[in-house]
Design goal:
The structure holds two protein chains of two kinds.
Chain A (H helix, E strand, L loop, with lengths): L5 E3 L5 E3 L14 E7 L2 E8 L6 E9 L4 E10 L12 E2 L1 E2 L6 E8 L3 E11 L2 E11 L9 H28 L10 H42 L4 E7 L3 E7 L3 H6 L14 E7 L4 E5 L2 E2 L5 E4 L6 E10 L5 E10 L12 E4 L11 E3 L5 E4 L12 E8 L9 E2 L7 E6 L5 E4 L7 H9 L24 E6 L5 E11 L2 E11 L1
Antiparallel strand pairs in A: 1-2, 3-4, 4-5, 5-9, 6-7, 6-10, 8-9, 10-11, 12-13, 13-17, 14-15, 14-18, 15-20, 16-17, 18-19, 21-22, 22-23, 23-27, 24-28, 25-26, 25-28, 28-29
Chain B lengths: L13 H9 L4 H26 L8 H26 L10 E3 L2 E3 L1 H27 L8 H26 L3 H25 L12 H10 L1 H10 L5 H19 L29 H13 L5 H28 L35 H30 L4
Antiparallel strand pairs in B: 1-2
Classes of the chains: A alpha+beta, B mainly alpha.
């Protein structure tokens, strides 16, 4: 995360440097979603604005070629503002790709919003909603040429008003053709002196006002930064987690005691051993009184761990608590329920390998297209699970209601995204978004467990996602087979 | 008024007097008046647009009217200054001022300054939107710079009219005085309008509302009264201001509109009008009546009386009127109290017709009311001095 920095110019123009976002996952604010709008299967990307109110860019790829029009409209995710949509926009069909539509939407508020997408085509109309976490992420610095122009204009205006007042005091009341005398000149000097003081005071007040506005905006940016995960270890293996924000209003407005279940759990806790990321735990703490969470840790070696803890607040807005913890050797309980762990090689050792060996001798294969991976490009990450005989596994089960889970972690920990087959949106938020649709709600099929027609789950699981920036990433892919959670790990360099 | 208010007689020369009685309003006053009307309509329309439709672009009609204002004032006054400076035997040369090597009427320089300020606000506002997001409020630094530009053009027009009027006599002066009233209406509309974030009916039972109105209105009431010869100057000007405001209140709802931004909290089918105007007409009438009876008082005594009367009479009528605006009886086409911008949530005190306390204790309330009283007196006194100065403007 970059640091804010501030420079001030001659006339009080603040040049603001920037900070990168740290929320809706961590450092990965754009939304990737795959689902069905009635009979139409869509792959949707919402590139959220850096400042709010700001413009979000919407990309819609239709799987079928029979789509005539795509409409997009923003609403609140729930409550007032979620029922009365504004006039929708038509997404524009690409000239090069008839199944690709793009559009722009103003997101006027921070918080839990949704983008509702209506598709019209040969098979009739279909509708789906994509939850979007909208929040101010940064401010932009004023470019030097613009700053220079503004300074010049301010000088012209400042000197202009002083000169106008001076000239007015000297000559405005003179009769036709009369020349200004000493009294007029003296009056003009006094007027100029007073005006200089007033202009200086005005510039000073303007600068102070700008500072207040800037501080308010920074406050809004800080509000949506990832809260810290404060951890304490009790009774040898009980890890207690509390959320703490640098923003004083965060605790007053966000009640951790009212978080809602996200695919069966109130919190998804990821503990990643540092620095090598060669061990990872995916646990599910329970909620305590007062909004704290606790979990009885399993056996863990003494090490320094990165903490990522995903929760969804009552309005459907996702938060990721971030922190680190030094743990001693833990002699804990066996993994239970949906908890799982993985251990293996350090990050980088699996670089560009498409096969990850699983503990039982089977393997996970990344069905990756040839060519380099590029940042900010929406992709479908496909992984197939093969048995020891190399054939597609036939014993996959839903893992917390879904075909799989994937975590994308950048080597410097500035990016963490917990992604599902439906995309990067939390399932809890998605359920709230779908609840507002009047008609077909089959969009949920992409993510939530649906009984396969054949009685078995397919061996191929896919995740729509895009890396937010270049760098080295580790991808953890988790599926469940015969009651056991298996984790495949892939390292990749993104350009 | 002539009988009760001391007015400087215009000692025009014979030639000038003849010109003053037969001349027509010069083209540059009409241009600047058109510029100001353009910005008044454009601003009101733009605010309503943002409250009703939301999404806009550089090319909306409301924006075009605002930009037209700056362009019209800039070009006409620029030409006027250049022609006065460089044209041989320019009729305005001897009634012009000099600045930075140029010559022209003082009002032309002020209008030109306003045009530059409006132009300067555009890149500033654009950067502000990119850096802090689109601001859905009136009071932001770039908007205030734009407002200063608009005020500059309006004040420049006022000074141009004053210079012409103070050199004129007879029918021509009366015609110019009518334009003077219009100009003051627009100036008061600017200061009252820019403060509208603090003048919503939810604030009308708090002292802050009255303080803001005392900052924005009495200075123009006093100034126009000391400039114009009409004994009912304050009443006429305020009546015109109220009538213009009511045109917007009753006219905008006739135009169909629907939100194009979300989230939408209010069902909108037409342009959202501004709030019903404050009852400034009553204190203006009181002001005129008292002014006629206090003409021979000392300036500060007169200012104290008029300022106090203005505040007290305004509180006396506006306070109960606020209760009426909050009541179901006001929810009709006349008072338009059910028209809310699309982005106002139903939980808002505005929608729920609840007052927002602006002072936490009775002591705070009365201290702020005392400040409002002092401000009213001071603004009236400044207006009196300003008006006296304006009567002397010849160039």
């Amino acid at each position: 995360m970059k640091e804010f920095k501030r420079q001030s110019t001659l006339l009080g123009i603040l040049l603001l440097a920037v900070a990168i976002p740290a929320l809706a996952h961590v450092g990965s604010p754009d939304v990737y979603y795959e689902g069905d709008a009635g009979p139409y299967h869509l792959f949707i990307t919402v590139r959220v604005p850096q400042v709010v109110p700001g413009v979000a860019e919407i990309e819609v790829r239709c799987q079928s070629g029979d789509v005539r029009a795509v409409q997009i409209v923003p609403l609140r995710l729930s409550g007032p503002g979620s029922t009365d949509p504004p006039t929708p926009d038509f997404a524009v069909r690409s000239k090069d790709d008839a199944q690709f539509f793009t559009g722009s939407l103003w997101l006027m508020e921070s918080g839990a919003l949704q983008v509702r997408i209506t598709v019209d085509g040969a098979q009739g109309k279909g509708e789906l909603s994509v939850p979007v976490a909208s929040f101010a992420q940064r401010t932009y610095a004023m470019q030097k040429p613009l700053a220079g122009l503004m300074i010049v204009l301010m000088l012209i205006l400042g000197m202009g008003v002083i000169s106008i007042v001076g000239a007015g005091a000297r000559e405005a009341s003179l009769e036709r053709g009369q020349m200004p005398g000493p009294a007029s000149a003296r009056r003009a000097k006094i007027a100029i002196a007073v005006t200089i003081i007033l202009v200086a005071g005005l510039v000073y007040l303007g600068k102070a006002w700008w500072g207040v506005e800037d501080a308010n905006y920074k406050n809004r940016v800080a509000f949506y930064k990832s809260p810290a995960a404060e951890t304490t270890l009790e009774n040898g293996n009980r890890l207690v987690i509390r959320a703490r924000s640098e923003n004083p209003t965060w605790s007053a407005r966000i009640n951790m005691g009212e978080v809602i279940p996200d695919h069966n759990h109130l919190m998804h806790l990821f503990l990643i051993e540092l620095p090598g990321m060669n061990r990872m735990w995916h646990l599910h703490p329970t909620l305590l009184e007062g909004g704290a969470f606790a979990d009885d840790l399993p056996d863990m070696p003494a090490a320094h761990y990165q903490v990522f803890a995903d929760v969804v607040d009552a309005r459907g807005f996702p938060w990721t608590l971030v922190g680190t913890v030094d743990l001693p050797q833990i002699h804990g309980a066996a993994l239970r329920g949906d908890d799982c762990s993985w251990s293996g090689e350090t990050i980088g050792s699996q670089q560009d390998q498409l096969v990850s060996q699983l503990p039982d001798g089977s393997r996970m294969v990344w069905e990756r297209a040839a060519g380099p991976l590029k940042a900010n490009t929406a992709m479908d990450f496909k992984f197939s699970v093969q048995g020891r005989d190399g054939k597609p596994a036939e014993d996959l089960e839903p893992y917390m209601g879904m075909a799989g889970h994937a975590e994308f972690v950048r080597s410097d920990l500035s990016v963490f995204a917990h992604v599902h087959p439906s995309g990067s949106v939390p399932m809890a938020s998605l359920e709230m978004a779908q609840a507002g649709l009047l008609g077909d709600r089959s969009a949920m099929q992409g993510g939530m467990a649906m009984a396969p027609a054949t009685g078995t789950w397919p061996a191929l699981v896919s995740f729509p996602y895009g890396f937010p920036k270049p760098g080295d990433y580790r991808i953890f892919v988790q599926v469940k087979r015969a009651g056991q959670v298996e984790t495949g790990v892939f390292d990749v360099q993104v350009q | 008024m002539a009988g009760t208010i001391s007015v400087e007689r215009i000692q025009a020369r014979p030639v000038e007097r003849a010109y003053a009685e037969t001349a027509s309003i010069p083209w540059y006053i009409w241009c600047c008046l058109a510029s100001v009307v353009s910005s008044v309509v454009g601003s009101a329309w733009d605010i309503s647009w943002h409250e009703s439709i939301g999404r806009d672009s550089f090319w909306t009609a409301a924006h075009m009217l605002i930009y037209l204002s700056g362009v019209l004032a800039g070009i006409s006054c620029g030409y006027l200054i250049l022609s006065t400076t460089f044209r041989k035997n320019s009729p305005l040369y001897e009634v012009s001022i000099s600045m930075w090597g140029f010559r022209g009427p003082l009002g032309a320089f002020i209008c030109a300054w306003g045009g530059v300020a409006m132009i300067a606000s555009a890149p500033f506002d654009n950067w502000w939107h990119n850096s802090y997001g689109l601001d859905v409020k009136i009071l932001s630094p770039p908007h205030v710079l734009l407002a200063l530009g608009m005020i500059g053009i309006r004040f420049g027009l006022l000074v141009m009219v004053l210079a012409e009027m103070n050199r004129a006599e007879g029918i021509y002066r009366q015609r110019l005085e009518r334009i003077l009233f219009v100009t003051f209406v627009f100036l008061m509309g600017m200061t009252v309008g820019i403060a509208q974030e603090f003048t919503n009916r939810v604030f009308m039972h708090g002292a802050k509302f009255y303080l803001v109105i005392m900052i924005a209105a009495p200075i123009w009431i006093a100034t126009v009264s000391w400039v114009a010869k009409n004994r009912w100057a304050a009443t006429i000007m305020t009546a015109m201001f109220t009538a213009l405001h009511l045109c917007f209140v009753w006219g905008f709802p006739l135009v169909p509109a629907e939100p194009k931004l979300g989230p939408v909290y209010q069902h909108i089918t037409h342009l959202v009008p501004p709030d019903f105007p404050a009852l400034l007409i009553i204190p203006a009438i009181i002001f005129d009546l008292l002014r006629q009876r206090t003409a021979d008082w000392s300036r500060w005594k007169q200012a104290a009386t008029l300022g106090a009367a203005y505040l007290v009479s305004f509180v006396a009528v506006q306070w109960p009127f606020a209760s009426f605006l909050m009541s179901p009886a006001s929810r009709n086409r006349i008072f338009q109290t059910t028209n809310y911008p699309y982005f106002v949530p139903p939980t808002s005190p505005w929608v729920r017709n609840l007052y927002i306390p602006t002072e936490q204790t009775p002591a705070q309330f009365w201290i702020r009311m005392l400040i409002a009283l002092c401000v009213a007196i001071l603004m009236v006194r400044i207006g009196m001095a300003w008006g006296a100065w304006m009567r002397r403007i010849r160039r």
